[in-house]
Amino acid sequence: MNLLFQEGQIGDLKLKNRIVMPPMCMYKSDNSGELKTFHKGHYLSRAIGGVGFIIIEATAIEPRGRISANDLGLWNDSLIESHKILNEQMHSFGAKTAIQLAHAGRKCTVEDETPLAPSSIAFSENKPFKKPIAATLEDINEIKELFIKAALRAKSANYDAIELHGAHGYFLCEFLSPLSNHRNDIYGGSLENRCRLLLEIAKELKQKVDLPLIVRISADEWMSEGWNITDSIYLSKELEKIGVDSIHVSSGGNQEKPNKAIELKPMYQANFAKAIKKEVNIPVIAVGLITTAQECEKLLEELYCDFVAYGRELLRSPNFTFIAANEFSKKEFIDSSYQRAF
Description:
342 residues; TIM Barrel; 8-stranded parallel β-barrel; two-stranded antiparallel sheet; 10 helices; 13 strands; 32% helix
């Protein structure tokens, strides 16, 4: 059926195909948080290569929200213009774009920054990780405001959508898990309380920033007593209720040493996406060692998801979309300058 090349939609955003480039940290900036020449070539090449939807890597809302000193940032207005230029270039090749707004929480390894987390529990006892300080209610309110301000900058930079990073053991994900969140206030304890901050930020983003909103989650943190797919289904339903436009389903990242068995094989996270898709009516993006056009077709045909994110494969092959189009005899989807290669 070649569903891979069918148009799709997230909120009011129309996408030319079902291929997504997920956010992948490149660690190529510096303390300025600025886009560098590397980023411009890296992302533009995937737009030229036919990717329908490009999500820019985790971009910090404040300096202590970086994973490393080489992360991108969007914490002040001076950073807007270079993103705006990059978006104009990517849009000219038919790609739609989003930016993943993030706060590293206890996984911040920047030398001169003190990590902030829901509780004072280190991700690891080993360097470069440090013991975080527990966020006060004042800190939490400040973080909420920083997400909104960064999202408004993203809109000014002409991004087509926002992705809120609630996965992989970073700040918002840390609040979700009972293993990293030991709070006894309204943001800790019950499942409802642990989901509160992510839901509050998502709700404010929908109210204050007129862009489609995607939330990326870790469906399971791979711990027997930790966050799991049942919790993720609850969260996804609540996100849908407040108007979130899509759920991007990953897993893991919140524990240094998971105690559940993980078989790293093609499409190993797809069952999580399918379980969530059965319970919500908004688009679901699947990711996780998906490398071929046939795998994408299977996931779309069998209703695992609505869009497929190719991470490592797009690192290996910026022109993966053209290769898939040739495989399916859809040469009209190959840029004319590249057709002689097929």
